[in-house]
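Question: Send over one sample?
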Amino acid sequence: MEHEVVRREGAPAYRDPQDDGPGHRDDEHELVDRLRASDEAAFVELVQVHHAAMIRLALTRVRSRAVAEEVVQEAWLGLLRGIETFEQRASLRTWLFRIVLNRAISAGVRERTHLPVGDDELEHRDGRFSRDGWWVTPPAHWADEVVDRVAAPVLAERVHEVIAELPPGQRAVVSLRDVEGLSGAEVCELLDITEGNQRVLLHRARTTIRAALEKEIAL
């Protein structure tokens, strides 16, 4: 259903959390206050900013778009029910994404509550990682190696196809880091994994994506 945003007089629009300029935290506190006051326009603004990202996040745990939609709908209900007890220790986005992951898991996803990380995903025998899990050579963002940047929009669909085919751990990390723009610390907190694991999973995922893009460009 389409919603028309009728913003309460004097209430600022909620900005994308990736725009971390001065005053962002004040904006978020204002939004939380509006949600607690049952301001429908505040809820619509939040949906406009986060709904698509929540679907993508749910799809890192489930294969069906229909199931992902159900998970996100349940997450929105969870937000409305829990906003009064939200302590704002984490950002609203991180809290909302955590609800999505929890709903996806409880919906019957085969993955365990903690992010499943296989030995093959964490191996560091290629020389890119030291024994303590730190990068020897940091990975490049997959977009940094696209020769023709004009072609990048054309390749976006292929990137999402490749991400969908990645192992669960890699898929979740690269989606949150490179698609949704979360920091490494936010991803570790959200997925309950170590910084070393996050780096390895991100490297594996980016390597696979870059290889797919190089193949497309070479055609």
User: Anything to note?
Assistant: The two ends are 42 Å apart (CA to CA). The chain has a mean pLDDT of 75. Residues 24-106 form a domain with the Rna Polymerase Sigma Factor; Chain: A fold (CATH 1.10.1740.10). The chain has two domains: 24-106, 119-218.
